[in-house]
C-alpha cells in the first residue's frame, strides 16, 4: 500500500492514480461503483466525476484537468458508452494524453464484444450512426470519435463477458496496483541520463510494429542495465496483455532451477498462482496468442533463453522480450538486437553526485573538490558513484581524503563483489588471460598481447574475444583497454591469493617483489613478475636464491616505462641501474616464456642458461658483450631484441635457434660481426641492424633467409657492400638502407621481384657526382639504376639527399612499372624533373 500511495499525490493537489471514464446510466451504481470502492480500498487515489467536481465548476475543464493529472485511465466500455457525446470527448482527450505525456489507457469491455467497438458495430455502430444523422454534429468530429474507439481496442484490457464480476474487479485492481508499484519503484524522473537511454531502447523495440522483437541490453557490471530496464518496463508495460519482470535470473536459476523459472514466468504472464509445469504442455502453447512483455534480468546461461523465450513464434504479434546480461556472446547466439549501455560522461557523473551533496551542508568548493576526485576514480561507472557518493559526502574533508587514498590500494568491496561476478563466469584459461591483462598488459597493443598469451600456450583469440564479450576489456586504437575498477578487481583477486607475496601468482608492485626476493622462501606459485623501476630509487639485489625456486615463472619483465623509448645516444651506466644483476643470478627456466631485462648489467647470460620454452628474449640497453658462449638450444625462441646493447661485439651462434622470426640489433654500436649461422634462420622475417656503426660486412649466408620480409640497414655507416647473392632474398618486401656507403649493388639485386619499399635516403657520393645514378653522358651499365630496373613490385622509392642533379639520368625509372611514390627531396636540382614521367 505504501508504494502505491507514494506514487500519487493527495487529492487536494489534483493528482490521481486512476481516472474512471464510464457511461453513468449503464454502470454508475453497479460495476463502476464496486470498482471504484475496491481501488480506494487498496489505497489507489481514484477520480470519479460525481464526487470530485465542485458545484458551479465547468465540467469540461475539470475533467480535462483530472485526466491530465492522472497516471491511468480506466475506460468502462458499456453498450451505451458511444451514445454519450460527453463520453466520446472524454475518450478523445484520454487518447491525446496517452500520445503526448505517457498517460496509460486500460479498457474494460463491459458486456460488449471488443470487435463491435473496433469495427463500430452493434450498439456502438447504432450510436455513431445517430450522431452522424444529427445535423448539429460535425462529420469530422464523428470520425475522430470513431478513430478513438478503434485505438482503444489496441490496448491490453479486460473482457467481462462470462466472468465472475467480483473476481474480475479484484484482478483489475491487482493489475493496477502492480503497475503503480513498478512505476513508483523506478522513479525515472530522478535518474540521470535515463530519458536519452530510454529513447534509444524504444527505437530498438519499435513498439508500433506488430512483429515479435527481442532486444539484449549488454554492458559491464554496475553500468546500470537493471536500472535502465526497470525504467523501460515502467514506461511501456501498460501496452501489453501480460507482463513479467524476472530480476536477477542468474540467482533465481540457482534457487529454483529451470522449471521454477518457467513456472514463475507463466504465473506473471497468466496471473495465476501455483502453476505446475508438469500439468502444462509448454510455454508456447499458453502464450502464442497473448501479446506479452518479458524482461529477463542478469542472464548468464543460454539455457535460460532456450527454455523461457525459445523462438519468436512462441509469442503473439507485438510481443517484446528484453534481456540484460554481461555476456555479449549469449545475445549473439540467440540472434537478438544489441544495446550496449555506456558509462556516464563527466557532466552526468557530476549531476549524479550533486544529488548526494544536497543531503549535506557542503560548501561549493568542498563539493567540487570531492566530486572531481570521485569522478576520476569511478570513471563513469554508476555503481561506483552510488557507493562512494552514499558515504563520502557525509564525511569531513580529512576523512574522505583518507578514504580516497585507501581506495588506491584497497578497493571498495561492494564494488569489487559486483564486478567479480563477470570474472567468476570465466573458464580457467580465460581467468588466467584476464589476470595477465589486469596485472601486466593493460593498454598494450592487441597484437603484442596476443603474442605473449600465445607464448604461454593460451588460446589468445578466443580468450580475448570472451573478455570483450563480457565487457571486461575494450579496444581503443588496437590497444587493449580495461576500466580502472575492473583492473583493480583483477589485482585484488591476486592479492587475496595470499598475505605472503611469494605465494601469489603475479607480482607487479616494487615492495611485493622485493619482499618475495628478500625472504628467499618457496615461491613456487609465482607465474609472472613485471617490475617497473621508473618511480623507484631502491636497488633490487638479484643475488637472492628466490628465482631458482620460482618453478612456475613464465613471464619476467624488468623495465623502466619512462625510458623504453630512449633516443639513440643516451647512455646507461651500470651505476644507474636499479637492479643489481649478480654474476650468480640463476633462474628456474622450465616454464619461462617471456624474458625482458632492461639494463642487464652483466657481460653475458650465465652458462646454465637453458630456457627450452623461451619464446621472447628482450634485453634493451644491456651491457652484454656476447649473449652466450658456444651453442644454446632454444628451439622455441621466436623473438630476440638486444636493442642499444652498446657493448655487444658479435651475435651468438644461432645453430640451435631454428624458429627465430624477429631479430633486432638496433643501436648495437660495437657490433662488428654477424655470426655465419644467421643463414640457418629460415623462419626469420624481420632483421634490424640499424645504426650498427662498426659493422663492415654481412655474411654471405644471410642470403639463405628465405622468409625475410623486412631488412633495416640504415645508419650502418661502415658497411662496404652487399653480398653478391643478395638477390636470393626472394621474399624481401622492405629494404631500408639510408646513409650507407655502398657504391655498387650486386647484379643479383634486380632479382628482388617482391620488393615493395626501398630507401637509399642520404646515400651521398663525392661532391658534383652521384654514385647512385649515372650522368647523362655516362655509359656505365654497372650503375645502381641498372640494378633497380627489375624491381617490378616496387611501389615506394626514396632517393632523397643522394646528391642528384639536373645532369642525372632519371629516365630509366620509367622501367619501375608499379612505382607510386618517388622521393627526390634534398637533391641538387635546379629544374625539377617531371615526376609524372617516372610514375605508373
Structure description:
- With 840 residues, the chain is α/β, with parallel strands linked by helices.
- Among the domains are: 2-175, Toll/interleukin-1 receptor homology (TIR) domain (Rossmann fold, 3-Layer(aba) Sandwich), CATH 3.40.50.10140; 189-340, Rossmann fold (3-Layer(aba) Sandwich), CATH 3.40.50.300; 346-409; 415-495, Winged helix-like DNA-binding domain superfamily/Winged helix DNA-binding domain (Arc Repressor Mutant, subunit A, Orthogonal Bundle), CATH 1.10.10.10.
- 35% of the residues lie in helices and 12% in strands.
- The protein contains 27 helices and 27 strands.
- The strands form 5 sheets. It has a 13-stranded parallel sheet.
- β3, α6 (85-101) and β4 form a beta-alpha-beta unit.
- 39% of the residues are buried.
- Mean pLDDT is 83; it is low at 1-14, 51-59, 564-575, 766-770 and 774-782.
Amino acid at each position: 500500500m505504501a508504494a502505491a500511495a507514494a506514487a500519487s499525490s493527495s487529492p487536494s493537489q489534483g493528482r490521481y492514480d486512476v481516472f474512471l471514464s464510464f457511461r453513468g446510466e449503464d454502470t454508475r451504481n453497479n460495476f463502476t461503483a464496486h470498482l471504484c470502492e475496491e481501488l480506494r480500498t487498496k489505497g489507489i487515489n481514484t477520480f470519479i466525476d460525481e464526487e470530485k467536481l465542485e458545484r458551479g465548476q465547468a465540467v469540461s475543464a475539470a475533467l480535462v484537468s483530472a485526466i491530465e493529472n492522472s497516471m491511468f485511465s480506466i475506460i468502462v466500455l458499456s453498450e451505451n458508452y458511444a451514445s454519450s457525446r460527453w463520453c466520446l470527448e472524454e475518450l478523445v482527450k484520454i487518447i491525446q494524453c496517452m500520445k503526448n505525456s505517457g498517460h496509460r489507457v486500460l479498457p474494460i469491455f463491459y458486456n460488449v464484444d471488443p470487435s463491435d467497438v473496433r469495427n463500430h458495430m452493434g450498439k456502438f455502430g447504432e450510436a455513431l450512426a445517430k450522431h452522424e444523422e444529427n445535423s448539429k454534429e460535425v462529420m469530422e468530429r464523428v470520425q475522430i470519435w470513431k478513430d478513438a474507439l478503434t485505438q482503444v481496442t489496441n490496448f491490453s484490457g479486460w473482457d467481462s463477458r462470462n466472468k465472475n464480476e467480483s473476481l474480475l474487479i479484484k484482478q483489475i485492481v491487482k493489475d493496477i496496483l502492480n503497475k503503480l508499484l513498478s512505476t513508483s519503484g523506478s522513479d525515472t524522473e530522478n535518474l540521470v541520463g535515463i530519458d536519452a537511454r530510454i529513447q534509444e531502447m524504444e527505437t530498438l523495440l519499435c513498439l508500433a510494429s506488430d512483429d515479435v522483437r527481442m532486444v539484449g541490453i549488454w554492458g559491464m557490471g554496475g553500468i546500470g542495465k537493471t536500472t535502465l530496464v526497470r525504467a523501460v518496463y515502467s514506461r511501456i508495460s501498460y501496452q501489453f496483455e501480460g507482463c513479467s519482470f524476472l530480476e536477477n535470473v542468474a540467482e533465481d536459476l540457482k534457487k529454483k532451477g529451470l522449471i521454477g523459472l518457467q513456472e514463475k514466468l507463466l504465473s506473471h504472464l497468466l496471473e495465476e498462482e501455483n502453476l505446475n509445469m508438469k500439468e502444462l504442455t509448454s510455454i508456447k502453447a499458453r502464450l502464442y496468442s497473448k501479446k506479452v512483455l518479458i524482461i529477463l534480468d542478469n542472464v548468464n546461461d543460454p539455457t535460460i533463453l532456450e527454455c523461457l523465450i525459445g523462438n519468436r513464434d512462441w509469442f503473439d504479434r507485438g510481443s517484446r522480450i528484453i534481456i540484460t546480461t554481461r555476456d555479449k556472446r549469449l545475445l549473439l547466439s540467440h540472434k537478438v538486437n544489441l544495446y550496449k549501455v555506456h558509462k556516464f560522461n563527466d557532466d552526468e557523473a557530476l549531476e549524479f553526485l550533486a544529488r548526494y551533496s544536497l543531503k549535506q551542508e557542503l560548501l561549493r568548493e568542498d563539493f567540487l573538490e570531492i566530486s572531481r576526485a570521485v569522478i576520476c576514480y569511478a570513471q563513469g561507472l554508476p555503481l561506483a558513484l552510488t557507493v562512494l557518493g552514499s558515504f563520502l559526502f557525509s564525511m569531513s574533508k580529512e576523512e574522505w581524503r583518507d578514504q580516497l587514498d585507501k581506495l588506491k590500494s584497497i578497493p571498495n568491496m561492494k564494488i569489487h563483489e559486483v564486478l567479480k561476478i563477470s570474472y567468476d563466469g570465466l573458464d580457467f584459461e580465460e581467468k588466467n588471460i584476464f589476470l595477465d591483462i589486469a596485472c601486466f598488459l593493460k593498454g598494450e597493443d592487441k597484437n603484442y598481447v596476443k603474442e605473449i598469451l600465445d607464448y604461454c600456450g593460451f588460446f589468445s583469440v578466443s580468450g580475448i574475444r570472451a573478455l570483450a564479450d563480457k565487457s571486461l576489456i575494450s579496444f581503443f586504437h588496437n590497444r587493449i583497454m580495461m576500466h580502472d575498477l575492473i583492473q583493480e578487481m583483477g589485482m585484488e583477486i591476486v592479492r587475496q591469493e595470499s598475505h605472503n607475496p611469494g605465494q601469489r601468482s603475479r607480482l607487479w608492485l616494487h615492495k611485493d617483489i622485493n619482499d618475495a626476493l628478500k625472504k628467499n622462501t618457496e615461491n613456487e606459485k609465482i607465474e609472472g613478475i613485471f617490475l617497473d623501476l621508473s618511480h623507484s630509487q631502491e636497488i633490487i639485489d638479484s643475488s637472492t636464491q628466490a628465482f631458482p625456486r620460482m618453478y612456475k615463472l613464465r613471464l619476467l619483465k624488468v623495465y623502466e616505462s619512462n625510458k623504453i623509448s630512449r633516443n639513440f645516444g643516451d647512455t646507461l651506466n651500470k651505476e644507474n641501474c636499479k637492479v643489481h644483476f649478480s654474476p650468480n643470478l640463476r633462474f628456474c627456466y622450465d616454464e619461462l616464456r617471456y624474458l625482458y631485462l632492461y639494463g642487464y648489467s652483466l657481460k653475458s647470460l650465465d652458462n646454465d642458461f637453458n630456457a627450452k620454452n623461451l619464446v621472447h628474449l628482450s634485453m634493451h640497453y644491456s651491457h652484454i658483450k656476447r649473449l652466450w658462449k658456444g651453442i644454446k638450444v632454444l628451439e622455441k625462441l621466436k623473438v630476440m631484441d638486444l636493442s642499444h646493447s652498446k657493448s655487444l661485439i658479435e651475435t651468438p651462434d644461432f645453430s640451435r635457434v631454428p624458429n627465430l622470426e624477429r631479430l633486432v640489433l638496433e643501436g648495437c654500436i660495437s657490433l662488428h660481426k654477424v655470426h655465419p649461422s644467421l643463414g640457418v634462420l629460415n623462419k626469420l622475417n624481420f632483421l634490424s641492424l640499424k645504426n650498427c656503426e662498426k659493422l663492415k660486412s654481412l655474411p654471405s649466408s644471410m642470403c639463405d633467409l628465405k622468409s625475410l620480409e623486412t631488412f633495416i640497414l640504415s645508419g650502418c655507416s661502415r658497411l662496404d657492400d652487399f653480398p653478391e647473392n643478395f638477390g636470393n632474398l626472394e621474399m624481401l618486401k622492405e629494404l631500408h638502407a639510408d646513409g650507407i656507403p655502398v657504391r655498387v649493388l650486386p647484379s643479383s639485386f634486380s632479382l628482388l621481384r617482391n620488393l615493395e619499399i626501398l630507401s637509399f635516403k642520404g646515400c651521398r657520393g663525392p661532391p658534383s657526382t652521384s654514385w647512385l645514378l649515372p650522368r647523362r653522358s655516362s655509359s656505365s651499365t654497372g650503375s645502381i639504376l641498372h640494378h633497380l630496373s627489375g624491381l617490378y613490385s616496387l611501389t615506394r622509392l626514396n632517393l632523397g639527399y643522394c646528391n642528384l642533379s639536373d645532369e642525372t639520368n632519371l629516365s630509366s625509372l620509367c622501367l619501375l612499372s608499379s612505382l607510386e611514390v618517388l622521393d627526390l627531396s634534398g637533391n641538387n636540382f635546379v629544374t625539377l624533373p617531371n615526376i609524372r614521367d617516372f610514375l605508373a
